[in-house]
C-alpha cells in the first residue's frame, strides 16, 4: 500500500536534484504534488513527470525569498488543492567565497533563499496546518550546517539556522499533530557537486566511511520516512544522510 495516498505535498526547489527526487518519490507513494521552482520551465517539467506516474501535479514558479510571491502562491495552492499535508522546504542556493572576500549580496542571497524561504513557506501554510491538526514539515539542510566549511560561511549559517528554526517550529506545532524535522544531506551527486574538481572529490571521499557520494534517491527515501505514518512520533530531529561522514 502506498504510504502517502491522497495526500498533498508541496516541495520547493523541485525543479532538479534533491527536490525533484523527493517530488517523484512522494508521487510514487500516492501523493499529489505542488512543484515549486524558481522557473516555470523547471516546475512544469517535473509536474509532467509526476502526471506520468498517474498523480496530480501543480507547477508553481516562485522566488521563495519574496514574501509577497510566497503568500500569493500559498493562497493559490490552498484554493486549488483544498489542503496541504506535507511541506518540504528544499530550495537552496550557494554563493561560495572566503569570508574576507564575501559581499553582502552573496551573504543575503544565500540566507534569504535557504533560511528565509523556509520561514516564509512555513508561515504561509501554518494556519491551514494548525486548523486541520495534522501535517509534516521537512526542512532540507546540510551537514555543512553541522561542521562548517571554508568558503561557505553564508551557506553554513543558513543551514545551521534551519536546525534551530525546525526545532522551534516542532515545539510550537507539536500539540496540533504537526511534526517538523530536518534532513542534513552530506555530499550528494547533484549539479552542485558536479562542479567540484577531481582532487577535491577524492579528498571528500576519504572523509566518508561508506566511500561514496550519496544520491538524490538516498535523500528522497529519508524524506519519505519523515513524511510517512512511520514517523508520526518523530519531531524536532536532524537526520543526517551522509554515509557516516559526521557521526
Q: Please give the alpha-carbon distance between the first and last residues.
A: 34 Å
- Which CATH architecture is right? 3-Layer(aba) Sandwich
Number of strands: 7
CATH topology: Rossmann fold
The residue ranges in which pLDDT falls below 50 over 5 or more consecutive positions are none
Question: DSSP strand (E) fraction?
Answer: 15-25%
Main pleated sheet = 7 strands, parallel
Q: Please report the number of helical segments.
A: 9
**In what order do the strands lie side by side in the largest sheet?**
3-2-1-4-5-6-7
Which superfamily, in CATH terms, is the homologous superfamily? NAD(P)-binding Rossmann-like Domain
Mean pLDDT over the residues = 96
Which shape, going by the Cα principal axes?
A: globular
Order of helices and strands: EHEHEHEHEHHEHHHE
Question: How big is the Rg?
Answer: 17 Å
Work out the helicity level: 40-55%
Structural class: alpha/beta
Task: Tell me the number of structural domains.
Answer: 1
The CATH C-level name is Alpha Beta
